[in-house]
Amino acid sequence: MQMSREIELEGHIIDSGIMTKVMDQVMDMGGNFEILVFDVGKQKTDPSYARLRIAAPTEEQLDLILSEVFRLGAHYPIVADAALVPAEGDRIVPKGFYSTTNHPTQVKVGGEWIPVEFLEMDCILVVDKEQKRACCTPLSKLKKGDLVVVGEDGVKVDYPERPREGGRFEFMHGTVSPERPSETLIEQIAREIIDIKRGGKEVVLVGGPAIIHTGGGPALAEIIRKGYIDVVLAGNALATHDIESNLFGTSLGMDIRTAKNVTGGHKHHIYAISEVMRAGSIRSAVEKGVITGGVMYECVCNKVPYVLAGSIRDDGPLPDVITDVMVAQDTMRRHLRDAGMVLMVATLLHSVAVGNCLPSQVRTICVDINPASVTKLMDRGTTQAIGVVSDAGTFFPMLAKKLDEYAKTFSV
Amino acid sequence: MQMSREIELEGHIIDSGIMTKVMDQVMDMGGNFEILVFDVGKQKTDPSYARLRIAAPTEEQLDLILSEVFRLGAHYPIVADAALVPAEGDRIVPKGFYSTTNHPTQVKVGGEWIPVEFLEMDCILVVDKEQKRACCTPLSKLKKGDLVVVGEDGVKVDYPERPREGGRFEFMHGTVSPERPSETLIEQIAREIIDIKRGGKEVVLVGGPAIIHTGGGPALAEIIRKGYIDVVLAGNALATHDIESNLFGTSLGMDIRTAKNVTGGHKHHIYAISEVMRAGSIRSAVEKGVITGGVMYECVCNKVPYVLAGSIRDDGPLPDVITDVMVAQDTMRRHLRDAGMVLMVATLLHSVAVGNCLPSQVRTICVDINPASVTKLMDRGTTQAIGVVSDAGTFFPMLAKKLDEYAKTFSV
Amino acid sequence: MQMSREIELEGHIIDSGIMTKVMDQVMDMGGNFEILVFDVGKQKTDPSYARLRIAAPTEEQLDLILSEVFRLGAHYPIVADAALVPAEGDRIVPKGFYSTTNHPTQVKVGGEWIPVEFLEMDCILVVDKEQKRACCTPLSKLKKGDLVVVGEDGVKVDYPERPREGGRFEFMHGTVSPERPSETLIEQIAREIIDIKRGGKEVVLVGGPAIIHTGGGPALAEIIRKGYIDVVLAGNALATHDIESNLFGTSLGMDIRTAKNVTGGHKHHIYAISEVMRAGSIRSAVEKGVITGGVMYECVCNKVPYVLAGSIRDDGPLPDVITDVMVAQDTMRRHLRDAGMVLMVATLLHSVAVGNCLPSQVRTICVDINPASVTKLMDRGTTQAIGVVSDAGTFFPMLAKKLDEYAKTFSV
Amino acid sequence: MQMSREIELEGHIIDSGIMTKVMDQVMDMGGNFEILVFDVGKQKTDPSYARLRIAAPTEEQLDLILSEVFRLGAHYPIVADAALVPAEGDRIVPKGFYSTTNHPTQVKVGGEWIPVEFLEMDCILVVDKEQKRACCTPLSKLKKGDLVVVGEDGVKVDYPERPREGGRFEFMHGTVSPERPSETLIEQIAREIIDIKRGGKEVVLVGGPAIIHTGGGPALAEIIRKGYIDVVLAGNALATHDIESNLFGTSLGMDIRTAKNVTGGHKHHIYAISEVMRAGSIRSAVEKGVITGGVMYECVCNKVPYVLAGSIRDDGPLPDVITDVMVAQDTMRRHLRDAGMVLMVATLLHSVAVGNCLPSQVRTICVDINPASVTKLMDRGTTQAIGVVSDAGTFFPMLAKKLDEYAKTFSV
């Protein structure tokens, strides 16, 4: 173990588990550590401080280890500026580029710590030295000549500490069990929505067409009408079946009030799209009185912005659908800027897409009938996601009821 | 195709699909058929009649084919008495024994058609010549000397015709999609429960512990209190966690009102069982005021019989649990005699067990968060089962509400 | 029942179940029927013929009923030309437009029956009177002035008859059980692939990234190298992780040979995409020796065309990805023209997308670890799909082995 | 925070995460802590030592907190003898009884630490003072007068430290993803089986009937024949379908080589049971040449003991089935005494049952097509379980191959 470097850790590093994670990481990767200083916060409000010497058999291995522990919030005692290398072409990363986490991050540029903007995971850190800005940049937007951070020097991550008392959902992290009391969880989601909105942040809904098929549409429309949702992110299918159910009472040709297939119902979604096409857009179809209710109608009437992202399996699609997925992704990103909470219901595709663009401090709740959907979302890096295994068709009516109850309780 | 025999088919054989099924079966098994007579009912109320000559290359193959088409309701034009062979030992079947379907069946004994009692699938037909009775007998109850029907002669099955107008659930047969309007389906289940009870038949609940874990317990208790359920079939776990939730507010140690694990909660189910043990039985614990609410409490107070069948994974178990599974199976069977409807919620094990003992005309509804559970139930022969993919914790509160609404509507 | 019309049915209408389906449909929709002529094929090779008078209380209801039974292959005794109405704008359908099934279809134009080209479900029938051509047209491609078939007159559907002997997979239709003998099914898929190719049709693979994550990549690459696959339809993720696994031995940062996450592995997929970006395309990266093996490599080397369709959750994406989903859909369609078989593995999104574009006679096999995926595919209209519940990581090695065995057996 | 007590922690308490867990627990439960002494092991092989003062607002709350941290391995600096209270009746626990974890545990009796025997979770600690023995006792076996440990004094738990280098499966703990490289995992299972056996411990198979239905039977039979399995725990269904497949080539009437249902196949499992009944037992049926191959056959021939536990859904059952579930549970327990590894395949019921009886140091691997099965097993307390999402029908042939490969490699 000839190679070694000193690193520092600060904050609630014991009770947040970061100290443990760092030691685990070092040893799992074949390194070793010596604790040089360890000042433990005696009371629960005291921060702790540790200095460790990390050692490894080779320079290369040491770098790999350091690269991982820096992602957990460790840093060099004296921090140099971040190294910057210009991108040699559009969408081409320099060797050794710094790949972002979705945790709050700072970069040292010109001796100063700059907070990173537009945080999301697996992106590139691009620095504008003149403007003193550092932006998280997806590969698709990297331009030739952009100054890219390489290596770990001069980057500091605030690894999220485990929240303590009053954490409404903390107990659920990392577990996805269908054996939880549904009504309790839905009540907690209702409280969280109201608290987030009172805190001045936005609540974003990400939804799939099963919301409509399972009959959850009217309750969701009511929730939007009452102002609980600030942005809707979805695809062609949710909007089409929502409009179909407004025009014909069916969803994919099935009557929502009887659950039976309706004669000629297989044409309904094509008619629905065609009618919106004739009007020019969903907004215009609402204004012309073609669409008279439902989720999209309430979005239009209540000025709730929506993004409909195209997918390879779309019929039609509706004129409002953004068929270029990279354009759709960017539009979606812009609408996530003020999100305090994202509620994902019955859509794996859009949930993973949105999860990719979220910083880890956004409350992320994923409701799906299939526990595997939440597992996949977390496998893809959205580790802050909390999974609720439930059925959209019973979830939304109960959520609407709980929102009303909690809103009332509070006003009194 | 040297070997051939004539068979007859009567009833709504075209529009019920039986004619098609018979032809399919014959040809799939390498046989052939000639239609000798085919009198089609011209109007939808008219029955049809067909006589077919079934042919096959060998006697053995012909017998195999006939054996299958007889299960669909075909029979010989002139029917001989059923052949009877005594069982050579307890639980030993004679070669060629007739294996029952779960459809209404008659046996010809002494020139007379006798209806088969206690119908369930995969059983043995035992005839009591003196009493002129024929009983469907599970292998476990077959005694040495019992007269067992062998071959297909003298047995007639009424294959269920596809129900027509007004069929509330017919559209759902054979499909298990989570994309159905939940509220609509739950309303239909509520109506069915009330109709079944008005028709003088019983409603049987088969339930698993997830009902309690997901917080569905109070709504189910209310449904029992209001008299909608006539029998409860479950296991040690449902009863234990129901009693635990009454004594401690928890289910497997998780507080149902907060969804968090409670300190010392891992002991609660053992305490719950131990308290019932001290009282002597669940009934006695209710009478002594130890248990003051919940599913089992309502069963006791409202004289709703329950069967708790033991399973290999039981803790305890409660003194009311029948630990010998064959005894439990028989007890369960007795409580299914007057069932018009069985509602199975969140338990694959008990659902398959009960499904095995049901004749096909009992309305069977299986509610589970996992669509694969219903598929398995149908794979095991309970083909009349209708699957609803939903979450017990939201299902029961909505069912309780719909039952109240429909009961009110009707009384007015 | 004042309103009535006569219709005809021909072919193996009894043993295919079509006669039954027609009668069911009429009665379920509140109509009635009288059988005027019924000539039953006495032998299994004889076709049957039926003439029915269909009646309904109102003209409108009668039209609805006829519209449905025509989809089953019924037609008027004397067939008029199809009625044609020009589309009033791009992507706007005329009222009463004929919505296609995915079964073989003919249209009567100028007294002549013309076969419909490019069949897929839920599309519009556009007729070119001069060229005497009729094309199935998705809404997105409908142009102002296109002559669209409206009503059911002059359209004839060949509803697929139930296949009889030798049907390799027929027994599986409509059921999706994980309790099937996997090795047997995989052997049958191997035989089917070889038979389809010998019959001169193409085998199309539709695949998701789980193929790579579960370690199925090398076996799939081998299958492509040996020439069993003619087209690959996938997305950015499959190609990215395949290339990542070639460059780094990892898939999403997990070492495929140890199943452990690799240090710095979270950067690998970005590096992989960036390297392809630098080369210009996947083909070019193969030619420059950057990519040296794997699924995409074998596609390039063996001239197997691939379509990579963009999705909202894409990182990068690779330069070969078609980011406009409607362009991607059209490209995909072109590659499905000669498909005799489509093998869909571990991707719900692409499976539904491809299923939408397939005529019903294309053998469609869907392999997924989750039985609900196949149910969804069938719910979306791809009723010919056969579901195999298995794990891509064990499926492909066994398929490669069975293909070799069967290919050998046959050559001898 | 008037109430407080001092506790100690020793060992690799930082890098095992125990220090973190203790602090978390205290604060989550509304308590507080002060670190009095904290000697950190400087090198990774050094143990650490901590003394903490735990405080809480009330005596009761303090007790609750201490009760939880003791389960993590903390203890009082000076440890008194465990308090013992006689059970007042059979199956009735004294108030405050100590409920066991499944981790190695010691009890202080007469000033001496005694290791607890027959460890499993949620049981009662019964001490025999004369024999100086302490046994983990399920409620069902608690007898009046048994000396039961109450409170936490004098009990010490060795909470498992997180294993470090070379841990073959550690990376998988707590995650159940279908996106793992199947072949790699199966190879690791093969190595583990061989290593466990070389270490002189037993490998126990817990299996469900889907092993037979999916065609995994022959490979499992081969694995048993080659001596890799020491005990088989299953139910009536696995044995019945295994014997059915030997006698008739079918499983639940489906031909395993063609995947098609066989005429008369619905009778096969009844015949199979009846034939064993005639022989008297499975062993006797093997000896008489009735059963000539398969899983049960290899068990008999290779003297591998098996326990067939009855369940409420059993047909028959076979004469070898233990129909009283509490007797079956005890028999199972006895066969788990020397288990070093338990391989659970395709059976949730038996997996949970066996999991309940295992100490946490037994390697526990659960293979199921449904990721939710493993989640449930872990929810029920078998937290050491490692989940592999795969299909029994492809899993066993690959496992057989890998076992052979690894066994060969090693012998050379």
From TrEMBL, chains A, B, C, D:
CDD domains xref list: SDH_N_domain
Domain of life: Archaea
Pfam family, one: Saccharop_dh_N
InterPro entries assigned: ArgZ/ArgE-like (IPR005239), ArgZ/ArgE-like_C_1st (IPR048964), ArgZ/ArgE-like_C_2nd (IPR048963), LOR/SDH_bifunc_enz_cons_dom (IPR007545), LOR/SDH_bifunc_enz_cons_dom_sf (IPR043009)
Domain LOR/SDH bifunctional enzyme conserved: from-to ranges: 4-103
Co-factor requirement: NAD(+)
Domain Arginine dihydrolase ArgZ/ArgE-like C-terminal second subdomain: start-end pairs: 187-399
Arginine dihydrolase ArgZ/ArgE-like C-terminal first subdomain domain sequence ranges: 104-186
Catalytic activity field: L-ornithine = L-proline + NH4(+)
Protein name (database record): Ornithine cyclodeaminase
Protein source organism: Methanofollis fontis
